[in-house]
Amino acid sequence: MKTGPDREVVSVYPYRSACSSSVWRGLITNARKELTFAGYTNYFLWLDHSNLATILKKKAKSGTTVRFLLGDPDSDITRRREAVEQTALTVSTRIRMTLEHLDRLAGVDGLEARYSDAEQHVSLSVFRFDEQMLVTPHLANLAGHDSPMLHLRRLQDDGLFDRFASHVESLWSDGRLVHGGSTSE
Fold first, then answer.
1. Three-state secondary structure call for residue 184
2. What is the mean pLDDT of residues 155-179?
3. Alpha carbon distance 53, 135 (integer Å)
4. With contact defined as beta carbons under 8 Å apart, do 138 and 148 qualify?
């Protein structure tokens, strides 16, 4: 039994892609109050989880807050990250893929998306499911799926979970509403 500051760590994955889709699906399905997807692009969610849009729509209609925090595909931060990653599927393209999926959810009450203009967002992805979260600190020039990931469960005040949650709330409060009808405010 863990008793120290690491007791909020449920699991550690050497790569985000090493976490099974069943873990993600369970966290999404079991969330009742909040789903926050604060990855810079979030594009992999739509690829890895069939019918995600239907699930998110049902969640929002049942009162679960669904939030997406994305990088701005046209920002200098995004362009700099593209130069670092040097991948064929660019950061801006991955963000636009998510925006396209969010546009299909236009008008769903309880679903909101914002752009983050913070340099700190591009190097850290945080996905919250009520009192659990998956956190990916991005390493150097690696894309998110190649970076490590922590699965956390909130068990104490001001622990790891609260620290990452506070970081996301700061980014969220400074974020700009995504326009184009894909969100409500």
1. coil
2. 93
3. 22
4. no
Q: What is the pLDDT of residue 17?
A: 87
Q: Are 7 and 155 in contact (CB under 8 A)?
A: yes
Torsion over CA of 119, 182, 35 and 60, rounded to 10 degrees? 170
Q: Can you tell me the distance from the alpha carbon of 153 to that of 36, in angstroms, rounded to the nearest whole number?
A: 15
Q: Does this model's pTM top 0.85?
A: yes
How confident is the model over 138-156, as a mean pLDDT?
A: 83
Sheet holding 65-71, edge to edge: 9-13, 149-153, 132-137, 124-129, 34-38, 65-71, 111-116, 176-177
Cα distance between residue 37 and residue 24, in whole Å: 12
Kind and range of the H or E run holding 136: strand 132-137
For residue 2, the one-letter residue type is K
Residues 6+ apart with CB under 8 A from 22: none
Please report, as a single letter, which amino acid is at residue 178.
V
